[in-house]
Amino acid sequence: MREFQFGEKVVLLDNKLRRYLITLQEGAEFHTHTGFIPHANIQGQPEGVLLWSTKNSKYRALRPSLEDFVLQMPRGAQVIYPKDLAPICMLADIGPGIRVFETGLGSGALSMTMLRYGAEILGYEIREDFLNRARTNVREFLGVDALERYHTHLRDAYEGIDETDLDRVVLDLPEPWQVVPHAERSLRAGGILLAYTPSITQAVRTREALSSGLWIEQRTLEVLHRTWHIEGQAVRPDHRMVAHTAFLTVARFLGDGLPSALPDASPD
């Protein structure tokens, strides 16, 4: 059993399952309107311990999951939410050793998810405050060693991509279609491009850019997240759901000189 130690991150759940993300520090206290809990009362305790505030409110202490951290971490830009993070990694086929170009780092939610899958990331971001926030969040959740696979630059992807022979290109920026020609020079044959776009008009423009004849398997989808109420025999969909957040457009690169359409007959 691994006990909580100072320096660790802990998520506290109240009786309404609201989450509070803290970092254990000597002499520090967790404060809410329902009283406070000294961090020293958490240090040395096992995960799942039940804690009481000074006003007798109950809190359960757990180590944060990636989902917890993404939803509670400090942010500069709007994050990509968990319901899209997992499909992005599946559609883009992210895995150990995969070399990914990512632009639009934001607060680092997608970066830390792909790094946790084992990818190596080359990241471009035009805002220094967002770049620093992304690197800090990656370090805080995954540890300093993860930064060895996280190569970030203050650069504008609209102006080009320096790297070549990339396995994946993942775009989260307002005009991803402007990056498609650069991706065609930087991706290896068989590589995958994925663009995350809030509006359908952005997805349409991106699909138009992917119609050059160098891409196949172009598709656009969105992920809808609906939970269910299950209490005994009372079973129904919950009244609320997380519906549209963005469209995911994905395509596979063939490489220069290879036609996207299959010939009608094999060559003699």
UniProtKB/TrEMBL annotation:
SUPFAM superfamilies for the chain = S-adenosyl-L-methionine-dependent methyltransferases
Domain tRNA (adenine(58)-N(1))-methyltransferase catalytic subunit TRM61 C-terminal, by residue range, is 62-232
Is DNA repair a UniProt keyword of this protein? no
Q: Name the UniProt key words of this record, in alphabetical order.
A: Methyltransferase, S-adenosyl-L-methionine, Transferase, tRNA processing
GO molecular function annotations of the record:
tRNA (adenine(58)-N1)-methyltransferase activity
Spell out the Gene3D superfamilies in the cross-references. Answer: 3.10.330.20, Vaccinia Virus protein VP39
GO CC, alphabetical: tRNA (m1A) methyltransferase complex
A Gene Ontology BP annotation from the UniProt entry: tRNA methylation
Q: Which InterPro entries match?
A: SAM-dependent_MTases_sf, TRM61_C, tRNA_MeTrfase_Gcd14
| Record PROSITE patterns | SAM_TRM61
A Pfam family found in this protein is: GCD14
Give the protein name, as stated in the record.
Answer: Unannotated protein
